[in-house]
Amino acid sequence: MSFISVKKLWKEYGSQVVLENLNLEVKEGEFCTLVGASGCGKSTFLKMLLGQETASRGELSLEGQQFPGEPDRNRGIVFQRYSVFPHLTVRENVLLGLELEQKPLLGKLFGKARRDALAQVDAMLEGVGLGHALNKWPHELSGGMQQRLAIAQSFIMKPRILLLDEPFGALDPGIRGDMHELILKLWRDTGTTIFMVTHDLHEGFYLGTRLLVFDKIRNDPQNPEAYGATISYDLPIGRTDPELYQTIESSVSETSRKLSA
Ligand SMILES: Nc1ncnc2c1ncn2[C@@H]1O[C@H](COP(=O)(O)OP(=O)(O)OP(=O)(O)O)[C@@H](O)[C@H]1O
Prior knowledge:
Layout: E1 4-13, E2 16-26, E3 31-36, H1 42-50, E4 57-62, E5 65-66, E6 75-78, H2 90-102, H3 111-127, H4 143-155, E7 161-165, H5 173-190, E8 193-197, H6 201-207, E9 210-215, E10 230-236, H7 242-260
Parallel strand pairs: 3-8, 3-9, 6-7, 7-8
Antiparallel strand pairs: 1-2, 1-4, 4-5, 9-10
Helix pairs in contact: 2-3, 2-4, 3-4, 4-5
The structure holds adenosine-5'-triphosphate.
């Protein structure tokens, strides 16, 4: 049985078809990268995996059961920006998830429980390269450090599924390289199943074990909202050739032009 199974999945907002007929089987521990034109529904798909959006039609199941309809600790998400709480220190940001999990009402741990949680938090922050910044505020961190913090905040909860929505999109190319190594290390160490949206095809090929291209294959110029995007390519990484790469880039650019026209 697949870990995640997507069958004939559709998402519509009113008369706008955003996603049409998605079919996908994902094994636990895969690293799926998602590319596609802006506005073609990649974030919407992540939101459905998170439990923030429901499908209009079709099935989305986790180990054979319907996907939980509410976000839970099994699923974490990191956005391009603003994933961390600005009014909490680095350490408090990562501690909060553990506190809310163990003490949902109070949101505070005391005594040994707090010391144990802090030891986990500090080890996680050390692991993502923020061991020197435990008591800093998010606004005192660079963009790359804020994303390290957001990643630590997600991984401390040991999610089975991690959703990354262009997490490195706002970072300088030099810093992106470091972030790639960090995410690959955490993925290998934990076996988390990752879905990551990126606009950078090279990044998609470099990080993923599988590349999913979201594209609008059907188009009605008179009624652009009539058709949605679907998964036009599902590629195991390592088996692609430059011609295919070029075809994907051209097709995604063509859809981008149509969506922004
Ligand atoms: N809550 C909503 N209500 C109505 N329409 C929505 C809603 N959320 C998304 N949409 C529409 O769905 C379409 C897909 O949006 P989505 O953000 O999923 O695209 P995307 O591929 O992630 O784009 P980008 O790469 O720019 O982030 C857009 O046309 C958007 O306006």
